[in-house]
């Protein structure tokens, strides 16, 4: 039998126990969580709302807690997260400083995207750090941009056979129409679709072979989006990515190296 470490943190241990409970039981109320952990209802509630914030839990209409999308994600076939972060963080910091908006880096995991890095805007009214957030790929700008690099058949198969976020054939066809426009434009826009009050402009990040390994997005409060020069933002993103060998947001740039 494993012995509990003497220097373990009760708060962390309680959060992990609740993750086990959510995974195994499927539906958990605050009172059930408090009883299982032997803590007060208010303490159980604080832990659960933190798990919701990080997408490890979600609430239904009855305010019960369910397993969140982060519990069902698998690593996927994208480039290693640590390598992507290290390579792109300098570019993200420079873009955030130049555009004075929040910049995020995401990877696609089937029908969802997960934010793996973020640089907050250097201004008071801004989109907060979204690192760890899980969003539907068809709603997030970075997710749309990455989906647009797939063929129509791949997109239809992905969303009509998915375990979650499944679309009907008619819904999948509508998504195909939107992705066609994104391919022509070379970027995607999300205006409050993934998160109320947040708008974003996203592009797919491609490696030297042309494979879309991530999505880069500039996010801002929707109230400020109306005054933004979208094409200008996309140009700045592309110029920043072009400074990195083997990285591009435009498939025609693959293999050409720095601009």
Structural class: alpha+beta
Percent helix: 40-55%
Number of discrete domains: 2
Order of helices and strands: HHHEEHEEEHHHEEEHH
Question: Could you give the order of strands across the largest sheet?
Answer: 5-4-3-8-7-6
**In CATH, what is the homologous superfamily of the largest domain?**
GAF domain
Shape: globular
Task: Provide the residue-averaged pLDDT.
Answer: 84
CATH topology of the largest domain: Beta-Lactamase
Strand content: 15-25%
Provide the CATH architecture of the largest domain. Answer: 2-Layer Sandwich
Query: Over all CA atoms, what is the radius of gyration?
Result: 20 Å
The first-level CATH class of the largest domain is given as Alpha Beta
Beginning-to-end CA distance, first to last residue = 60 Å
- Counting DSSP E segments of at least 2 residues, the number of strands comes to 8
Provide a count of the helices.
9
> Residue ranges: pLDDT <50 for 5 or more in a row?
75-79, 252-259
User: What kind of sheet is the major sheet?
Assistant: 6 strands, antiparallel
Care to describe what's here?
41% of the residues lie in helices and 19% in strands. By secondary structure, it is α+β, with helices and mostly antiparallel strands. The chain folds into 2 domains: 62 residues, Orthogonal Bundle (Arc Repressor Mutant, subunit A), CATH 1.10.10.10; 173 residues, GAF domain (Beta-Lactamase), CATH 3.30.450.40. The strands form 2 sheets. It has a 6-stranded antiparallel β-sheet with strand order 5-4-3-8-7-6, with helices on both faces. α2 crosses α3, α4 crosses α9 and α6 packs antiparallel against α7. It is globular, with a radius of gyration of 20 Å. It starts with 9 loop residues before the first helix and ends in a 17-residue tail after the last helix.
